[in-house]
Amino acid sequence: MFGWGKQQVSTLALDGQAPVVLAKNETVLNGALRHGLAFPHSCKVGGCGACKCQLVSGQVRELTDSSYLLSREEIADRFILGCQSIPQGPVEVRLPANPLANQHIEGTLIHQRPLTHDISEIVIRLDTPVRYLPGQYASLRALGTTLPARCYSFAHAAPEAGTQEIAFFVRRVPQGGMSNWLLDSAALEQRLDIQASLGDFHLREGDGTLLCMAGGSGLAPLVALLEGALDSVAAQRPVYVLMGARTQRDLYYRDELAALKAHWQAPFEFIPVLSEEPADSDWRGRRGWVTEAIPADIRAGTQGYLCGPPPMIDAAIAVMTANGLAREQIFFDRFSDQSVK
User: CA nearest 14: which of 53, 59, 60?
Assistant: First the structure.
């Protein structure tokens, strides 16, 4: 009676490699990972942008609007989010050029330093050096466990030739397997597998003000970015570091930021903003949402660097653009909560 056309098989060709067959309604990212293809990723839910790639040929169905993560130029160049794109037939995608990618190193967790009640700095000694740009991140996997790998931003700059000691700021997430493992004293001297270096969050060229904003453990890539700029002409650019926290006990790294300020060659202002500090406390600083501390009149040449939870990032972008900062001059790294994965 009625004949239905055979559904076209979806295939994925990554960076010119031989195509692999995808399952029905399988995303580009999940299909690549299932076939053992190296594909940068972090949250897997469209919240971070780590899996962005360029659609060279073919068509995809996007599960969510990607314009909040991709620039107009990227969208015009057919960039998509791998985790939110389902191929509609054969597709070919290309990963952004990253000369520091595909570094696989093992190391030992050697130090845990509490910074707040729920954030600690961890240090890993590597078997061989790793290279990265300040602001990038790595994927950590605990060897000898079944815990899924998780991504964390490098907390300090490194020499161009690389380093064998790396640090991360880790927030203890309720029911978060990896974060709780990393912050447990039993993890000291345990081995990890590290994949680096990931992400395109790094300092761009320019001579205007650096308007930085952090929430939670999002201070890590900003510290690395500023440390990396100390010995360059970028240290002559004015800096604002806005840090959003709930109460005073959630503030950290203030002494280290003061040391950065002492060595900076231009005005450097650290502005912590507390949203839930008791009204009768001794706090004399800013209160409210950290986005309320964004300057109302942003000067030409300013660049925005944002790291933290997605709602903060979204709100900050809205305020910054409303206050005159071009969207193309705002760079960010979304820290997504994966507590139940």
Answer: 53
- pLDDT tens-place string over residues 281-295: 999 999 999 999 999
CA angle 104, 151, 327 (to 5 degrees): 115
- What are the structural domain ranges in the chain? 11-94, 103-198, 210-334
323-330 CB contacts, 8 Å cutoff, 24+ apart: 323/294, 323/295, 323/296, 323/297, 323/298, 324/297, 324/298, 325/211, 325/298, 327/71, 327/72, 328/71, 328/72, 328/73, 329/302, 329/303, 329/304, 330/303, 330/304, 330/306
Quote the pTM value.
0.82
Judge whether 230 and 263 are in contact, CB under 8 Å.
yes
Task: Assign a CATH topology to domain 11-94.
Answer: Ubiquitin-like (UB roll) (3.10.20)
Q: Which CATH architecture has domain 103-198?
A: Beta Barrel (2.40)
